[in-house]
Design a protein that fits this description.
single chain, 309 residues, alpha/beta, 6 strands, 39% helix
Length: 309
């Protein structure tokens, strides 16, 4: 699999060539994810599609839930899927650890279930944009299946949508999507490039799940007491939060304006100007505006300053 111009900091979509039969004939499409629970690495959503007339091909190839297969078996099935490119196609969406944690820390509540639902809807929309003649959609559920199914049907009322528990073991097209998602995540984790200049090779960080001893060792050894974890870590996960609370340097934020004014009034300094007022720029209105450069910590994490909410 060629990930193309993949940047660890941002989401990235990879997709196969669209077979002509998928545009000419009615198709089924399956959706599943890989990497929902780990504290390390991305979550990957995968979609696989094929003409309804080629459903038997899925059984012939032998697709099964990716969690029941070894990495070698998954890679072999993915190769077979690509070899059947005249009938089968796929799309994967790689959600970066940064994006996942930042999304869940929004001021307005946006949990992992909502993120998953929106990503699945995005895959269906992308398939339709490519001209794929979708009739049936099968999705492995996240949360309540009925709620999830109704949500997708409200967005795509012309499609026959089924959301089910254990869909990856019930519908071969979802099993195929599961293979696409898992193979992609395995590759991204295996080839992760640390922009923070960390030197970790092979699989020294384990599976990425909080209970894995290798993962725990990686988190302990790689934490920075000031800047926290690398972008490989989902810093919003409770495992990471607990470690940061225990191991990092505490941060004391400046009081907000209201508190400052209240303290000045108590001390009889109500009319005394703030010390920062003595350092205001003396540039004239015609002088060009100088925009200060952001520290690498913020640019690497795609964080931007805002003037309002």
């Amino acid at each position: 699999m060629d990930l193309g111009d993949f940047d660890n900091r941002n989401n990235h979509r990879v997709e196969s060539f669209v077979p002509l039969t998928a545009k000419d004939e009615q198709c089924c499409l399956g959706i599943d994810e890989a990497g929902r629970g780990p504290v390390l690495g991305p979550m990957v959503y995968g979609a696989c599609y094929c003409p309804l007339s080629s459903k038997d091909l899925l059984t012939t190839i032998g697709f099964a839930d990716s969690k029941t297969l070894s990495e070698e078996q998954r890679d072999e099935l993915f190769s077979k899927l690509n070899a059947a490119g005249d009938s089968l196609g796929w799309i994967v969406n790689i959600l970066s650890p940064n994006y996942i944690s930042n999304s869940m820390l929004r001021r307005s509540k946006y949990n992992l279930n909502q993120l998953s639902h929106d990503t699945a809807a995005g895959l269906i929309e992308r398939a339709l944009e490519q001209g794929i003649n979708i009739k049936e959609v099968y999705v492995d559920t996240v949360g309540d299946p009925a709620f999830y199914e109704n949500k997708l049907k409200s967005i795509f009322p012309h499609l026959e949508i089924t959301v089910s528990k254990k869909a990856d073991s019930l519908y071969p097209i979802v099993s195929a999507a599961s293979i696409c998602a898992k193979v992609t995540r395995d590759k991204v984790v295996r080839e992760w490039k640390f922009i923070e200049d960390l030197s970790w090779e092979g699989n020294e960080y384990g599976s990425g799940y909080p209970g894995d001893p290798k993962t725990k060792n990686f988190l302990t050894a790689s934490i920075d007491t000031v800047f926290g974890f690398s972008q490989f870590v989902r810093f919003g996960w409770s495992t990471a939060v607990v470690m940061l609370d225990k191991s990092s340097v505490p941060v004391c934020w400046d009081d907000d304006d209201a508190v400052v004014k209240e303290n000045k009034a108590k001390d009889g300094l109500k009319n005394v100007p703030a010390i920062t007022s003595f350092f205001q720029s003396s540039r004239s209105e015609s002088s060009p505006t100088i925009v200060p450069l952001s520290h690498r910590y913020f640019t690497d994490r795609c964080l931007k300053q805002v003037s309002g909410l």
